[in-house]
Every structure is written in structure tokens, then in C-alpha cells.
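Below is how a single chain appears once it has passed through the pipeline. First comes the sequence as given, then the structure the pipeline wrote out for it. We keep one example in the README because the format questions we get most often are answered faster by looking than by reading.
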Amino acid sequence: MSSSVAVVSSRGAKRLASGHPWIFRSDLAEAPGVPAGPVRIADPRGQPLGWAWWSPTSEIVLRRVERRSDAVIDRAWWRAALAHAIARRASLASVTNACRLVHGEGDGLPALVVDRYDRWLVVQLLSAALEAQRAVIVDVLQELTGAAGILARNDAPVRAREGLPKSVEVLAGGVPEEVEVDEHGVTYLAAPWTGQKTGAFLDQRENRVMLRTHARGRALDVFSYHGSFALHLARGAESVVAVDASASALERARANAARNRIDTLTCVEADAFDYLRDAAARGERFDVIALDPPALAKNRGSIAGALRGYKELNLRAMRLLAPGGMLFTASCSYHVTKPMFLDVVHDAAADSQRPMILRALTGQPLDHPELLTIPETGYLKGLLLENGEA
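Resulting structure:
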């Protein structure tokens, strides 16, 4: 076997055949004698299996990107792959100027994230193999999008596992500290350099619009961050309370409200658990509630604690919900599966002693594709619930 070919075990080959692109170190039969980058892969019999990203120091040593062994991973290949991913999002241009252009494995481009914020791009190169191809990726992205600037948010902890440094740096042009995002007519400022993820939570865009259609009376946005749900709720509700533990996040929420000429938003700096408990003690009721906490389960070991947290949050929110009111509750914890989340919300509903009606079960939007054979591409799940009390 050529020294530039990576040989995977029989178990690894079966994993690839099942539709999952990852090969772990334990399933690497023969390592290629080349630096990080694209390499051909084969099974133990020498049968070609295509091309993969090779990351020598990572636990995930190979990520398949191409099934054709006769392909060439060059600029033309990158152009075709990125153009295909970008075209998938074409319909979003009519409703927003911000979306994810590449969702890693979900778009057949493992470890690559590309988000568009108006005329600028934010990328994450999360493997050593991608880092080795940085120049061609940036060049092709500029050609396809005409981006005024490209920022690398390479500050994700996963880069350490690849033997890569963490950094935030401009790769092309210039990128401002803030970018105005227009989302179905609501505007807010994203922060590419310092904001959560790559600057904003783009994955909840369609859920915010969905909940907006139910907005009325008193509305509550818990874990509000920069007020994204609150801004949409304010389009239909008489008043909105935005709750977050971060004073700086709420300052941005207030600024975003002013940007949209919203004067019905009240920001409350508080721990979400405490706020929900105290509001119930005060006898408060809300007609619409958005409950969008950060990932409570960072790893498998924290699942049990996360489930307790999700139950408590949902139980308290349900008890605040007025008869006929709507609750949108979400989990972005990958380790908390859809069945787990449904079970914990079911238990909360039972304890609430309210007839909670399931109105919708939501997942990820068009620009965050979830492949059924790659569970790691999916993490976001949401439930729209109605309090069935008369």
C-alpha cells in the first residue's frame, strides 16, 4: 500500500459504509506517511474508499469527504463543493442577510463552518487537515460570495485536540466589530469577533418567526441573550420581559429594541431558575414564553444533571403559562437526544398539572442540515406547547 494512503480497519470500513464519515484512531490500520491534509483511504484488502481529511494528532484521525477514489482534492473540487452548499441556502436570501453557508458534516465538508453576516463571512477551521487547506478555502469563498472580509473564529476548544492553536484573526479584507442582521423584518446586531458561536444564534431563526405568529398579551423570553426571541415577540405582544444573567447581553438587547423602535421591552438581569420561581410566587402569568437555555449537557457525564435542569425550567415555565398560552422550549445539548428531551418535558407537564398540548416539534433550519446517518450534525430540538386550560 502506498505510504500516502490511510488504511482503515474492517470496523472502520463498515462505519463508512453506514454513512458516517469519521474514523477514530482505534480503527486506523495503517497511517499515511504525509502531513495533515487530504489523503486517499482504503480498506484492509486495498479496496479504495475515497478521500478523507487526515489529522495525525486527533482522536478522529480521518473524516471522509469524497467517495470517488479517482477524484482530485484541488481548487476545482473545493469550488464545486462550496458552491453546492451555498446554493442550498439560496431561498434564505429573501428573508435574511445572515445564515450558515456550510454546516460541516451536514454539507459533506467535515469540520468546516462558514456563516454569512451580510457582506462578511465568519469561518471555523476545526481540523488540522482543513488548516492545511486554509488558503484555497478562503480564495474560493471570496470568489463565490464576493465577501468584503473573512474572519476566522478559530477559538473553539476542539482545535486543541487537533494540535492547533486557538485564535481569532482576519483572513481576508476587513470585518467590523458589529454587523446589522435583518431577520424576517427584525434587525439586530451580530458580533462576529466576540459573540456566541460565530456572532449570533442563527439556528433559532425559524423558531423565532414561528413563535412570533403566536405573540400576544404578556410575553417572556428566558435566557434572552441579545433579545432575539424578545424582538420577534414584541411584534405581537403588548409587553415583553427579557431575562438573562448577563448585564452586557441585556445592554445589547436594549440597543436592539431601540433599533427596532420597540418600547415595550423590559430587561431583567437574573438567574433564570430564580426568576421563574420568584415570578410564580408573585402569581405572574404570561401568554407566550420562550425558553431557550444554553447547552446544559456539555458531555455524557453531565446528562443526568442536565435533564434535572430541563425539567425544573420547563415545570416552572408551564406554571407561569396563562390558560391558552404558548410555550416554546428548546434544547441545544447534543448529548440530550430528542427522546430524552420529550421525556423530560412530558414529566414536567405531568407535574405541572396542566393539560399541555404538543403543537409542533421542531429541529434545525435549512442552513443547519442534520443527516440521519450522522447524529453529530443534529443538536437542536424544540417543542411548541399550548396550555389547554380554558
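Residues 201-387 form a domain with the Rossmann fold fold (CATH 3.40.50.150).

See the next section for the split statistics.
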